[in-house]
Amino acid sequence: MSQPTPRHPGKFVWFEHLSGDRDAARRFYEALFGWQVEAVPMGSGEPYLRILNRGEAIGGLRSAPPGAPSLWMPYLSVTDVDASHATALAAGAKSLMPPTDFAPVGRGATLADPTGAAFSLWTSALGDRADLAAPPVGDWTWNELMTPDVPRALAFYARVFGYRHDTLDSGPQREYHLLKQGERMRGGVMPSPMPDTPPLWVPYVAVADCDATAAQVPALGGRLIVPPTDIPQVGRFAVLLDPQQACVAFITAAG
Question: In total, how many domains does the chain have?
C-alpha cells in the first residue's frame, strides 16, 4: 500500500526569485549562501533554475515579466489550490495567475493579498518537506510580511489559511505579529518600515555567522538595508537588496 503524500497546509514550502537577470541572481546567491543551482528542462521554454541547499531543492530562479519588480515569491502549501484561490478572491485578493497545472510536480496559483503583497498557492505532487526545529545553514527559516495595513492582512491570512496570531511589543508603533497554526509559528507580520516600502513578503535564510555574511554583500553587488542587528533571545539578522533589488534577510539563531 502506498504511503499518503505528506502535506503541511499553511507552511511556506518554496521560494522563487523573480528578476530580469537570472544569471546575475544565480551568481550572487551561489556566492553569498553557498547554494547550488541546476537547470531543469521545461519543454520548449527556458529551463527552470532550481536552487539546491546541501543537495535538497528549496526554491528557484525565474524571469520576471517585463517591467515587473524583482522579488522573492513565497509559496504556501494548500490541499486544494482551486478552493484556496476562490477563498482568497472572496477575501479580497487579486488573482495574478489562475490555478494552473505544472505537470508532473504540482498545481499552483498566484495572488496579491488585499494589501498588495504577492504570494503563491501550491499543492505538490511530491508532498511537502518536513517541519524542522532548526533549519540547516542555507535553508529558509522565516518569512515576514511588511504591509501598510496590518489589520487587513491579519484578517485575510486568518480567513484563507486559518492562522491565528500573537502580538509582540517591539517598540513604539512597531507591534509585531506572529502567524501561528496551533503552536507552530509560520511567519510574521509588521507595518511597512517606510511609507514608500511596497507590500511584500521577505524570506529569511539561516547563516552560520550573520556578520561574516553581511561583510560579503557589498563586494557581490548587493546593498545592506538593515545592518547586523540583535533580536534578544532570537538571533542576529540583517536585510539586503540584491543586485536586482529583490529583498531578502538572513539570520544566525541565538544560542
Answer: 2
- CA nearest 138: which of 216, 70, 55, 215? 55
Q: With contact defined as beta carbons under 8 Å apart, do 140 and 12 qualify?
A: yes
pLDDT, tens digit, 9 for 90 and up, residues 118-127: 999 999 999 9
What pTM was estimated for this model as a whole?
0.94
Reference 248, options 231, 218, 216, 223; nearest CA is 223
Say yes or no: 96 and 23 in one domain: yes
**Residue 35 φ/ψ, nearest 5 degrees:** -70, 160
Q: Could you identify the residue written with the cell 508532473? A: 104
Measured from the Cβ of residue 120, the count of other Cβ atoms closer than 10 Å reads: 20
- Is 102 a domain residue? yes
Q: Report the distance separating Cα 95 and Cα 88, nearest Å.
A: 9
Classify each residue of 168-177 as buried b or exposed e, where b means 16 or more C-beta atoms within 10 Å of its C-beta: eeeeeeeebb
Q: What is the pLDDT of residues 191-236, one digit of tens each?
A: 998 888 999 999 999 999 999 999 999 999 999 999 999 999 999 9
Cβ-contact 53, 7 below 8 angstroms: no
Whether 146 and 90 map to the same domain: the answer is no
CA distances, 140 to each of 81, 109, 137 (Å): 23, 21, 9
